[in-house]
Design a protein that fits this description.
The protein is built from ten helices and 16 strands. Helix 3 packs across helix 4 and helix 5 crosses helix 9. The strands form three sheets. A ten-stranded mixed beta sheet has the order 4-5-7-16-8-13-12-11-10-9. The chain has a four-stranded antiparallel beta sheet with strand order 1-2-3-6. Strand 11 and strand 12 form a beta hairpin. The chain has about 325 residues and is of the alpha+beta class. The longest helix has 16 residues. It has two domains: about 150 residues, Aminopeptidase (3-Layer(aba) Sandwich), CATH 3.40.630; about 120 residues, Aminopeptidase (3-Layer(aba) Sandwich).
Length: about 325
């Protein structure tokens, strides 16, 4: 393999402008990879992010931090849904293999034993950019987790199932749609109650964190609600990338479930994404226990809108004599 002169440079605040520019121009970057997003975590993680530089030019960035549960593990990134090497396209083919080899050497030299690589799913890239998956194979990485998401192709949008069409027709007569960000508190109460009631879970973000992020990314993070008798009874919070709109949070009250109010919310958001020029609408994963359990009922509900499966893949590189 012809080696390139890649230099791995640990991130510092002095690199913020170059980092943000790389993410903005990247073929596979989203706002989840930016300093503006990752910095909301504060000091929650021990940062291990790096820039990949060739001949003085930033060719890629790698958001990463030490695992809070395992000091021998570095993760790309524990505070983001997915991470990986973010680049403008130059790091392809053998160059990507060189980049991941250099990353492995860097983290091994820092004393880490393993690297967990959370690959960017293909629907979030501006163009095909899975050279990293090939490089991971060449480096002997093992796939240690796989989640199943459901996404709708907005260019070749198939029809909804008959049941979803019937439910949508009924519920559109009963609800009023709103995108008013001032309804966030009411929607958040619905979402948190829904997660506790149906999944015995809590949101990843706190309400203050979400307010902060919505202020930083008003074009990427926003809400869509369904009102019944003037009250928020169902809604979603979207985290949108340049090629895909992603459904981050969903919630509905018991009365909203009875009339399938979420069908109206989803249909309105899908249509809006299509009109905005997005390629995909992503409903999110339907997994539990690190991908080992599939909530098939939830997945079938999502696929009823015409969606299909998208894998979220996690790979692990072990350094030296790590076992």
């Amino acid at each position: 393999m012809n080696r390139v002169s890649l230099q791995i440079v640990p991130y510092s605040q002095a690199h913020e402008m170059a980092w943000e520019q790389c993410c903005a121009e990247a073929v596979n970057g989203t706002f989840l990879h930016t300093c503006r997003f990752l910095s909301y975590h504060g000091d929650r993680f021990k940062d291990a992010s790096v820039l990949m530089v060739d001949a003085g030019k930033v060719r890629g960035v790698f958001p990463a931090a030490q695992s809070p549960a395992d000091p021998g593990l570095v993760v790309s990134h524990p505070g983001s849904t997915f991470g990986g090497v973010v680049h403008q396209g130059w790091l392809n083919g053998a160059r990507m293999l060189e980049a991941l080899a250099a990353l492995s050497d860097h983290y091994q030299n820092l004393g880490y034993q393993r690297l967990l690589y959370k690959a960017v799913p293909h629907i979030f890239t501006r163009k095909p950019a899975q050279d990293d998956l090939y490089a991971l194979f060449r480096l002997g990485a093992q796939r240690v987790r796989c989640d199943l998401s459901c996404a709708l192709d907005l260019i070749h949008r198939p029809p909804m199932s008959g049941r979803r069409q019937r439910e949508l027709k009924k519920t559109q007569k009963l609800v009023t749609m709103s995108s008013d960000p001032g309804l966030l508190d009411d929607l958040w109460a619905v979402i948190t109650h829904n997660l506790a009631r149906k999944h015995n879970a809590r949101p990843v973000h706190s309400l203050p964190e979400l307010v902060l992020l919505m202020g930083r990314f008003p074009g990427q993070i926003f809400i869509r609600c369904a009102l019944m008798a003037g009250r928020v009874e169902a809604g979603i919070i979207l985290f949108n990338g340049p090629s895909a709109w992603h459904l981050q949070y969903v919630g509905a009250s018991e009365s909203a479930y009875e009339v399938s109010a979420l069908d109206a919310v989803f249909d309105a958001a899908i249509t809006e994404a299509q009109l905005a020029g997005a390629r995909y609408f992503d409903f999110g994963i339907s997994n539990e226990e690190d991908g080992r359990v599939l909530n098939d009922g939830l997945y079938r509900f999502k696929s009823g809108f015409g969606g299909g499966g998208v894998a979220h893949e996690f790979y692990e590189i072990r350094f030296g004599n790590a076992s």
